[in-house]
Amino acid sequence: MDRLADSAHLMLVSDLDDTMVDHQDPQNLSLLRFNSLWESEYRENSVLVFSTGRSPNLYRKLRNEIPVLTPDITVLSVGTVILYGEKLVRDEDWIELLDENWDRNVVLEETDKFPQLKSQSEMDQGPHKVSFYISKEDAEQVINPLLASLSKRGLDVKIIYSGGIALDVLPKRAGKGEALNYLLNKFNLNKKAPINTLVCGDSGNDAELFIVRGVYGVMVKNAKEELLEWYKRNKNMYKNVMHATERCAAGILQSIGQFKLGPNISPRDINISFSYQENNNNINNNDNRDKPACFTVKFYLLCERWYRAEIQNSENFIIHLKNITNESGVIVHPSGKENSLHETVDILNSCYGNKKGMSFRIWLDKVLVSQIGTDCWLVRFNKWEVNDGSKKCCANTVLLNSNGEMPGGFCISHVHQTWHEECPTEGQQLLIF
Q1: Residue 225 and residue 231: Cα distance in Å, rounded?
Q2: pLDDT of residue 390
Q3: For FRET with 279, which of 110, 192, 219, 262 sits at 20 to 30 Å CA-CA?
Q4: CA angle 415, 9, 91 (to 5 degrees)
Q5: Per-10-residue mean pLDDT for the chain, 433 residues long?
Q6: End-to-end distance of the chain based on CA atoms, in angstroms?
Q7: C-alpha 78, offset from chain centre
Q8: How far apart are CA 221 and CA 232, in angstroms?
Q9: What is the pLDDT of residue 313?
Q10: Which residues lie across from 216 on neighbouring strands?
């Protein structure tokens, strides 16, 4: 929470499954569109929060399978676990709050009296979350009697039903909405209240997010029946909640534009021209110079499109890359091997289309920029390559120099790559850049 010196421009709080992540999109295209926008425009001055019903183990499993970004804050197990940063540091004060009037063993004793409740797997459970499967019809018969029996035993709990099948028993202070209120209070105490907060969800356990005071909210197009029913009952009370016409992450991008919270056009949605006479079509037009983060994201997106043969095999592309790289600059690969940047561009020239027809993607995570001189910036990030199910990652440091005569306003002077600590190095090879 200390990464930003001032208030976040935007605090984006999103559920994962069927909200940020579209499990019907095998190539994760809408998620990759969001990733590119966030890293190019928002990472530097905003806060990303994932708020999911997944347990810590299931969250790690998703991150291994899907190209989700590294959030600043992770809220797991339906608001019962709050973790900070890449190292997932637990908020012990939150745990202490949830312990009040909570006894997991008593919950298990009372829920055992309702045969309609079928326990979820051990991986889905948590110290402050007891989870079951139950049909909608049975849930309507069970929830109130169960609440009464737990209250009679001296517990202060809430029951959340979502997805038309999942029932969670939580401490009264838990839940996604309560966790968000807790985080906002912490920001307020540090005089860093976010300027805008956008919450995003698709199911019943996300409803609490939309009633947090002062937030904007988006229910993605594919929102489930119980959330749509909640919206129908409450839409006159919550004017800043919208139902998107796009699925999952695409709906989140739509809401950023609808609420005028900032840029919502992803670099992945921009057509690129290398004919510098066509200034109106060139995304790197000097009249609309990029920020260092945006320039970097677009550079690696260009490389991806070259490998996938999604742009024309043109001499203009190679001219473009040589225009935005320093002739005397060097790239250091994870192996320690060094090449000049222009030699590397020449090698890249021979790689056109070698990933055509494959599920190959490049995406950047944790793009952070430091200005180290009047016209010099260090851009640090993790670069991921995904190809037909295999993933590899290296930590990159790129030195940019400002140059108004160059397309985009910058020139790459140096690139240094090392293997990411979570990526096995034996037998690994990265592509040219």
Answers
A1: 10
A2: 84
A3: 262
A4: 85
A5: 89 98 96 98 98 96 95 97 96 97 97 97 95 96 97 96 93 97 96 97 96 97 95 94 98 98 96 53 53 95 95 91 94 92 94 94 97 96 90 95 77 94 62 68
A6: 32
A7: 17
A8: 14
A9: 93
A10: 198
What is the residue whose two structure tokens read 């051990």? 122
Threshold 0.90, pTM exceeds:
yes
Contact (CB, 8 A) for 120 and 131: yes
Contact 201/182 with Cβ under 8 angstroms?
A: no
pLDDT score for 280: 40
Output the six-digit token pair for 392: 């590899």
Nearest-angstrom CA–CA distance, 313 and 432: 17
Q: Tell me the β-bridge partners of 11.
A: 47, 197
